[in-house]
Amino acid sequence: MEFTFLGTSGGMPTKARNVTALALQHGAPRHWYLIDCGEGTQHQLLRTRLSVMQLQAIFITHAHGDHTFGLPGLLCSASMNGRTEPLFLIAPRPVWNFVESALGNTDSSLSYELKFLDSEAEDFYWEDHALQVTTTELSHRVSCRAFSFTEKNLERQLLKEKLVADGIGAGPAWGALQKGEDVILDNGTLIRSGDYTTVNRAPRKVVIGGDNDNPDLLAAACNKAQVLIHEATYTQEVADRVGSWPQHSSAAQVARFAQSAGLPNLILTHFSSRYQYNPNTKPYIGEVEAEAAGLYRGNLFMARDFARYQLSRNGILEATEPQGFPAQPGSGQRPSHDKARDQHD
Amino acid sequence: MEFTFLGTSGGMPTKARNVTALALQHGAPRHWYLIDCGEGTQHQLLRTRLSVMQLQAIFITHAHGDHTFGLPGLLCSASMNGRTEPLFLIAPRPVWNFVESALGNTDSSLSYELKFLDSEAEDFYWEDHALQVTTTELSHRVSCRAFSFTEKNLERQLLKEKLVADGIGAGPAWGALQKGEDVILDNGTLIRSGDYTTVNRAPRKVVIGGDNDNPDLLAAACNKAQVLIHEATYTQEVADRVGSWPQHSSAAQVARFAQSAGLPNLILTHFSSRYQYNPNTKPYIGEVEAEAAGLYRGNLFMARDFARYQLSRNGILEATEPQGFPAQPGSGQRPSHDKARDQHD
Predict the structure, then answer these.
(1) Which of A104, B2, B76, B209 could potentially form a cystine with B25 if both were Cys, beta carbons 3.0 to 4.6 Å apart?
(2) Do A63 and B105 touch (CB under 8 A)?
(3) Dist CA B263 CA A260 (whole Å)
(4) Active site residues per annotation of B
């Protein structure tokens, strides 16, 4: 199970960070899922090995533009590339309306079926061959949901001694049982996979939050999760100055929650465009990291664009691409109007 | 008068070219105008000195997504930066509908007034302090307009001998007359600027086409224009293979028209995403250039992203940034499905 951050900025892009999007790779080779789709997500994809042709489903946490404005372009480019496989768009209803209006008013038709599913349905549940997905309601200026992804179809170990003891010798039946299939032997006996195999590890589970000013809402969802990916738009000091209106989390809030929930891994993202990667230009993004590190004892990661993480079968999260902040002095956004931005991250 | 190409790809972005957008700088320092706004235009702007705070008006040639999907993000970012000055959006009505739906469905409000003007009104004419703008109907799959920009308020030369002969001595009156203002002398005489000044050059005029399969439609608009900027989506060979459905121009079509119209300068843009900047990867974009160069004897330019051009007061067009194609082997798009793309550039 692998994650690729395609955008880690809140509100608007900077030279170093695009607005929010995250790729989750799992299941069949090259199959992947997209969580949020800020403007320029399709451009970011051109710099990865991910292709819109193998995209299985798009999940949108909430309707704000920094999480959705990339949808029309990405959907049209998939069509121009000749996609025919249906694509799920799992999102709040206003996002469907936005997409339908964008396609309709720009004379755009898709070469494949776009299957809308309401992420805010009360009994929401979605699964495919590889993953099961549930939602958690968050607290933000607009309706917003976290998505919890739990893997399915874990690899089974054969109970060989029991098989031999019951007179079922090695052969094609063993392979079928290991795949989870029940088998009828030549003598007509039904052999159930569940009786002769075992799954000897926990399923991987990842919780991906949207914008949210109350991480505690994720307490139940984070049960048995190895990873939480959550926004940390600013430090507590900036959050206090900005006031409660934007309804974002500070690094301190998320870190405290992750610590109390006993989460082994926390990845922070969705940083305010004010934060710079150059330590000599204030505010420095290292302040966000330092605040979280002071309150959380698990493995803390600061997402950056194109950072990749691998979650192994035994639940260990490792960065597979160089970590830390890009060493690009002046790579943040241009000087801007901080006061105005305070209202909009 | 200066032009900065922010995107030069048709249909979809590649690693080397974004979808269509063009900045025109003229008038007051840092004032500029945007023509078309494909997805990622605001990202491109971060790599220029242009700011959405000084943007005077946006002109959209037609509704297709590769010319419009960047609008919601750019408009919202201007708001997050605290813009208060009204902004003109001069576009076909479906583009207004797209923008209004995008803002409405994503809970986005703007900090400034967006003034819609219908670019397809029969008597369309727009002007501000620096430019007058007219439209020409083109031939494309959807309704599409070219915009002709003609400069206003050209600098005046004082007719000093006449002033002296008429007893009007050097003084503040001369300055006012040169600015185009009429003056009342101390003795009560009205002195008209037009009688004592002259404009000794032609106004600069630039025609910026949208998508169009019939350049001849621009014959009247190109009268007295120094520059035509027009799409050349592919070579004639590819255009013939693709067929007439997409309604684009080949390089040969545009070059023949520019030659017959006696245009001194032609800038080609909106190249199919298939074209590569690496001469060893086919199809090579140099094929498009060679086709045009064989039929057009004026100054031919192949636009590329971030290329800048200056049109001097005497009508000379010069590239102010390094020209030619980026020397980035493999910098084009990933291998894709040519046949599907034929239908969608």
Answers:
(1) B2
(2) yes
(3) 71
(4) 66
Give the integer Cα–Cα distance in Å for B332 and B276: 5
- Please indicate if any CB of chain A lies within 8 Å of the CB of B68: yes
Is the CB of A46 less than 8 angstroms away from the CB of B13?
yes
Interface of A with B in 22-51 (CB under 8 A): 39-40, 42-43, 46-47, 51
A302 touching B (Cβ < 8 Å) = no
Query: In chain B, what is the greatest distance between 2 CA atoms, to the nearest angstrom?
Result: 79
Please confirm whether the linkage preceding A283 is cis (ω < 30° from 0): yes
d(CA A250, CA A237): 8
**Is B70 in Cβ contact with A107 (below 8 Å)?**
no
- Residue A345: the pLDDT is 60
Q: What does the CA dihedral B16, B19, B25, B26 come to, rounded to 10 degrees?
A: 140
The predicted pLDDT at position A344 comes to 55
Give me the helix-helix angle, B93-105 and B71-80, nearest 10°.
Answer: 60
Mark out the alpha helices in chain B (DSSP H runs): 41-45, 71-80, 93-105, 160-165, 172-178, 193-196, 236-242, 251-261, 286-293, 338-342
How many CB atoms lie under 10 A from the CB of residue B32?
23
The count of CB pairs under 8 A between chains A and B is: 152
pLDDT at B321: 73
The verdict on whether residue A67 carries a ligand-binding annotation is yes
Q: Give the three-state DSSP class for B249.
A: coil
Cross-chain Cβ contact A64/B40 below 8 Å = no
Contacts of B81 in chain A (CB under 8 A): 336-337, 340-341
- Please state, in angstroms and rounded to a whole number, the distance separating the CA atoms of residues A312 and A309: 10
Q: What angle do CA B336, A108, B10 make, to 5 degrees?
A: 50
CA separation for the pair B32, B56 (Å, rounded): 6
Q: How far away is chain A from the Cα of B150, in angstroms, using its nearest Cα?
A: 29
Q: How confident is the model at residue B64, as a pLDDT?
A: 98
Sign of CA dihedral B94, B100, B106, B109: positive
pLDDT of A324: 66
Nearest chain A Cα distance for residue B107, angstroms: 6
Interface list for B 129-158 with A (CB within 8 A): 141-142
- Which residue is closest to A60 within chain B, CA to CA? B106
Residue ranges, chain B, pLDDT below 50 = 329-339
Domains of chain B are: 2-154+203-342 (3.60.15.10), 157-196 (no CATH)
Name the stretches of chain A with pLDDT < 50: 329-339
A338 a catalytic residue: no
Q: Is there a cis peptide before residue B283, judged by omega within 30 degrees of 0?
A: yes
Least Cα distance to B208 among B264, B136, B140, B152 occurs for: B136
- Beta strands A190-191 and A227-231, pairing class: unpaired
Q: Are A76 and A158 in contact (CB under 8 A)?
A: no
Q: Is B64 marked as binding a ligand?
A: yes
Q: Does ipTM surpass 0.90 in this model? A: yes
Name the residue of chain B whose CA is nearest to A62's CA. B106
